[in-house]
From TrEMBL:
Family as reported in the entry's similarity comment: Belongs to the STRIP family.
One term under GO cellular component: cytosol
Composition skew (Basic residues), residue ranges: 279-288
UniProt protein name: Striatin interacting protein 2
Disordered as annotated region, ranges: 264-357
Pfam family, any one: DUF3402
SMART domains: DUF3402, N1221
Stretches assigned to the Far11/STRP N-terminal domain: 1-295
C-alpha cells in the first residue's frame, strides 16, 4: 500500500474517487462486451473467458488515442488491484489480485506496458511542458503513475512466493525473473531503464516523473532479479563450497535476529537529575534504564547506568531537542515483535542459555602476514614478503599461534559473472533524492522537487485537508528514503559478492559524492521522534479502504494517528543507512577519519536510544572502528558503550580497537589510501577491458574452437615452405600420447 493506493489529498475528486475511477472504467469497458460478461461478474467467468477479455484489453492498448489508452490502462490496473468491488473481505481482494496478475503476465501485458512506458519517457512534449510549468502536480504524471502502478504490482506479486502457488505460476516466476534481467528495451535491462528515469528527473529534464513509484519499482526489480539478503547468504555458502573453504561459522542473519536490545546510555540531563535526587534523599528516577539482562546470553546489560561517574558526556553529546520531555519509547518499550508468553515452569527449574559472545572471531590474511613478519624480524632477522606458510626457524609457540589464526574464519570475495554496474551519475542522482527527502534538509530554490507526484492541482483550503496533505507529504518523503536506502545497500552487497573491485569503485564514488556526511546529517536529528513518527492514515490503506466503509476523518483523529508506538518504515531506513555507512568505512582508515572529523560519535550515541537490537549493533560497529582515534578520555568516559561493543560486535584477532595502539591509528596522509585504491581499480579495468592492452597481461583464450576459428595472417612465401615446416615440427617430433592421457 506504500506504493500505490494511499494519497492523502487528491484535490476535489479525493482519494476515494481516484481509487474507484479504475473500477468505473473497468465496468464501463467490461459491460460494453456483452458477449463476454453476459451479465456476470469477473470472478464468475471461466479462465478462458477471462483470457479472451484480457486479450481485448491488450489490443486496445495499441490505439493511437491517448485518452482511450489511459482508460484501458486503468481497467487493467483495476484487475491488478483484485476487482475489489466484487469482493467482501481483504483476503478475497488479495486472492483475486494474485490470480489476475499471473493471468495478465501470461497474456503479455507487461511487455505492452513496457513499450508504453518507453513512449512516455521519450515524450519530449510532456517533458518540455513540465519544465516550463511553475508548479507541477499529480495531473502532470497521470499516465506514468498508472503504468508504474501496474508494473509494480506485477513485479512485487510475482516475486513473492507462497505455499499454494500453482506449478505454472512457479515456472512463470522464473521466466519473468530472467526477462527482467535480460535486455528488454534498447539492449538494456529493465532496471537500467528505471535508472535512466531517475537521472533524467534529477537533471531537471523531466520534473514530472513520479519518483516515489520509480524508486520503489527499481528497488523491487533489483530485489527480484538479484535476490535479497537470504539469497546472498546462500550464494556465499555455495561459493565457499566451490572454493573448498570451510563453512561459515554462523549465519549472520540468524545471529542478529536472536539479539536482544539493551537500554541506551543515560544522557547528561538524566545524570544531573539523578544527582539532584540523590542529594534530596529520594530514589533516583531513571526512565531510560529500567531493564536488566536484555541480551540473549544472560549477560549484564552494558548500558545499565549504575555508576554515574563512568558516563560523563561532552556538552555536544546531549540532545537538546528532547530536553525536558520523555518520549514513550524512552520509558520502557523495546522495538521488537512481542514474544509469546513464557510457559509455566516449576519454581525449581532454571533455564540455561548458552554463554559467550554471539559472533565467532575473524582474522584477515593481512593480520596473519603482519604477525609472521613481526615474528621473523624478531627471531630470524629477515622477512619473506607475503609468505604465510613457511615457519622455519620460528619457535614452537609461534607455530601454534599461526595455526590458531588460520583456524579462524578468513574473509574472501569470489569472482563470478559481472553484474551491470550503475554509473556514477546514477549514484549522484540517488544521493540527490536522499538529500531532498531527508527530514533535516532545508528547502532551497535550486533543489529538485520530489513532491511532484503528491501535490494536488488545487491546494487545500480547510484545516482537515491541510493536515491530510501534510501527512501525505511526510509519508511520501519517508518512502523515498526507504527505497533509496534499501536499493543502495542491496547493490553494495551484491557488488561485493560479485567482484571486490565493483564494490570498491561504487563505494569510492559514493564517498566522493559526500555520502558519509549526508548520512550523518540524516541522523543529526531527534531520531526518537523520527522512529516514532505517525505519518499514515490506517483507514486509507489498501485493501482496507475498498472493503470497509470509510469513516469520517477529523482533525482530532488525524492528529492522534494510529496506535503503534513506532514506524517500521523509518526504522528500516535507519538500519539501512547505518549498514551503508559501515560498508563504506570498513577497513578504510581514511573514511574512518571522516567519521571522526565530522564528529559522528555523539550523533551515533544518540541513535543508541532506539532500543532495537539490529540498529544498536550497527551503531556500535561504527563507534568501534573510530574508538582508537577518539582518545583515551573519550574511552574512559564512555565505558558502558565500550562494554556494549565488546559484548555485541564481532572481534577481530590482533585488532587493538579499545586501546588505540594500532599502527593504523597514526595520523599520516589518509588520502594516499584512496589514491592507491583508485590506481588499483584503474589498472584492473585497463588490463581487462581496454582494447589496447599490454600483451603481457592479455587474457589467454583456452577454447579450442575459438582458437582454431581465428584468422591468422601468414607471410606470402609460407605455402612454399609449408610442407617442410610440417615435416620438421610435426611429423618428425615424437609425441608421448600415453603421457598426455595420464597428465592432461
Amino acid at each position: 500500500c506504500e506504493f500505490l493506493f494511499y494519497q492523502g489529498n487528491l484535490g476535489l475528486l479525493g482519494y476515494y474517487g481516484i481509487i474507484h475511477l479504475d473500477n468505473y472504467y473497468f465496468e464501463e469497458d467490461f459491460r460494453s462486451h456483452g458477449n463476454v460478461s453476459r451479465g456476470r461478474r469477473w470472478i464468475e467467468l471461466t479462465v478462458e473467458e477471462q483470457r479472451a477479455y484480457v486479450m481485448r484489453l491488450l489490443d486496445a492498448l495499441e490505439v493511437t488515442d491517448r485518452d482511450k489508452r489511459l482508460k484501458v490502462a486503468r481497467a487493467i490496473l483495476y484487475l491488478a488491484q483484485g476487482v475489489f468491488d466484487e469482493c467482501d473481505t481483504e483476503v478475497d481482494v488479495l486472492h483475486w489480485s494474485r490470480h489476475n496478475i499471473f493471468l495478465l503476465y501470461d497474456m503479455g501485458i507487461f511487455t505492452a506496458l513496457l513499450e508504453l512506458l518507453s513512449m512516455e519517457i521519450d515524450n519530449s512534449q510532456a517533458c518540455s511542458s513540465a519544465v516550463r510549468k511553475p508548479a507541477i502536480s499529480l495531473a502532470d504524471s497521470t499516465e506514468l503513475r498508472v503504468l508504474l502502478s501496474i508494473m509494480y504490482l506485477m513485479v512485487e506479486t510475482i516475486r513473492v512466493q507462497t505455499e499454494d502457488d500453482r506449478p505454472e505460476w512457479i515456472a512463470a516466476r522464473e521466466t519473468f525473473k530472467n526477462e527482467l534481467a535480460s535486455p528488454l528495451y534498447n539492449g538494456e535491462p529493465f532496471a537500467l531503464l528505471l535508472f535512466t528515469m531517475v537521472t533524467k528527473f534529477c537533471s531537471m529534464n523531466a520534473p514530472h516523473f513520479p519518483m516515489k513509484k520509480v524508486l520503489l519499482l527499481l528497488w523491487k526489480t533489483i530485489l527480484f532479479t538479484l535476490g535479497g539478503f537470504e539469497e546472498l547468504q546462500e550464494m556465499k555458502v555455495r561459493h565457499r563450497e566451490r572454493l573448498n573453504l570451510p563453512p561459515l561459522p554462523e549465519d549472520s542473519i540468524k545471529v542478529v535476529r536472536a539479539m536482544r536490545a539493551a537500554s541506551p546510555p543515560a544522557s547528561a540531563m538524566e545524570l544531573i537529575e539523578q544527582q539532584q535526587q540523590q542529594k534530596r534523599g529520594r530514589r533516583s528516577r531513571r526512565p531510560l534504564v529500567k531493564q536488566d539482562s536484555l541480551d540473549t546470553y544472560n549477560e549484564r546489560d552494558p548500558f545499565k547506568n549504575d555508576d554515574a561517574r563512568d558516563e560523563e558526556e561532552d556538552p555536544e553529546d546531549t540532545d537538546s531537542g528532547i530536553e525536558g520531555e520523555v518520549d514513550p519509547l524512552d520509558r520502557d518499550v523495546i522495538i521488537q515483535p512481542p514474544p509469546p508468553p513464557p510457559p509455566l515452569r516449576p519454581p525449581t527449574e532454571r533455564v540455561n542459555f548458552p554463554k559467550g559472545l554471539p559472533w565467532a572471531p575473524k582474522v584477515r590474511e593481512k593480520d596473519i602476514e603482519h604477525f609472521l613478519e613481526t615474528s621473523r624480524n624478531k627471531f630470524i632477522g629477515f622477512t619473506l614478503g607475503n609468505d604465510t606458510e613457511t615457519l622455519v626457524g620460528l619457535p614452537r609457540p609461534i607455530h601454534e599461534s599461526v595455526k590458531t589464526l588460520k583456524q579462524v574464519s578468513v574473509g574472501i570475495t569470489p569472482v563470478i559473472i559481472p553484474l551491470f554496474l550503475c554509473s556514477f551519475l546514477h549514484q549522484i542522482a540517488l544521493l540527490k533524492l536522499l538529500l531532498a527527502a531527508a527530514p533535516t534538509s532545508k528547502a532551497k530554490t535550486d533543489s529538485i522537487n520530489i513532491l511532484a507526484d503528491v501535490l494536488p492541482e488545487e491546494m487545500p483550503i480547510t484545516v482537515l485537508q491541510s493536515m491530510k496533505l501534510g501527512i501525505d507529504v511526510n509519508r511520501h518523503k519517508e518512502i523515498i528514503v526507504k527505497a533509496i536506502s534499501a536499493l543502495l545497500l542491496l547493490l553494495l552487497k551484491h557488488f561485493k559478492l560479485n567482484h571486490i573491485y565493483q564494490f570498491e569503485i561504487v563505494s569510492q564514488h559514493l564517498v566522493f559524492a559526500n555520502c558519509i556526511p549526508l548520512i550523518l546529517k540524516f541522523f543529526n536529528q531527534n531520531i526518537m521522534s523520527y522512529i516514532s513518527a505517525k505519518n499514515s492514515i490506517c483507514v486509507l490503506d489498501f485493501p482496507h479502504c475498498v472493503v470497509h466503509e470509510m469513516p469520517e476523518l477529523t482533525a482530532e483523529s488525524l492528529e492522534a494517528g494510529d496506535s503503534s508506538q513506532f514506524c517500521w518504515r523509518n526504522l528500516f531506513s535507519c538500519i539501512n543507512l547505518l549498514r551503508i555507512l559501515n560498508k563504506l568505512t570498513k577497513w578504510k582508515h581514511s573514511r574512518t577519519m571522516m567519521l571522526v572529523v565530522f564528529k559522528s560519535a555523539p550523533i551515533l550515541k544518540r541513535a543508541l536510544k532506539v532500543k532495537q537490537a539490529m540498529m544498536q549493533l550497527y551503531v556500535l560497529k561504527l563507534l568501534k572502528i573510530q574508538t582508537k582515534y577518539l582518545g583515551r578520555q573519550w574511552r574512559k568516559s564512555n565505558m558502558k558503550t565500550m562494554s556494549a561493543i565488546y559484548q555485541k560486535v564481532r572481534h577481530r584477532l590482533n585488532d587493538d580497537w579499545a586501546y588505540g595502539n594500532d599502527i593504523d591509528a597514526r595520523p599520516w596522509d589518509f588520502q594516499a589510501e584512496e589514491c592507491a585504491l583508485r590506481e588499483s581499480i584503474e589498472k584492473f579495468n585497463s588490463r581487462r577491458y581496454e582494447r589496447n592492452r599490454n600483451g603481457d597481461f592479455a587474457p589467454v583464450d583456452n577454447c579450442l574452437q575459438s582458437v582454431l576459428g581465428q584468422r591468422v595472417e601468414l607471410p606470402e612465401d609460407f605455402h612454399y615452405s609449408y610442407e617442410m615446416w610440417l615435416e620438421r615440427e610435426v611429423f618428425s617430433q615424437p609425441i608421448q600420447w600415453e603421457g598426455l592421457l595420464q597428465n592432461p
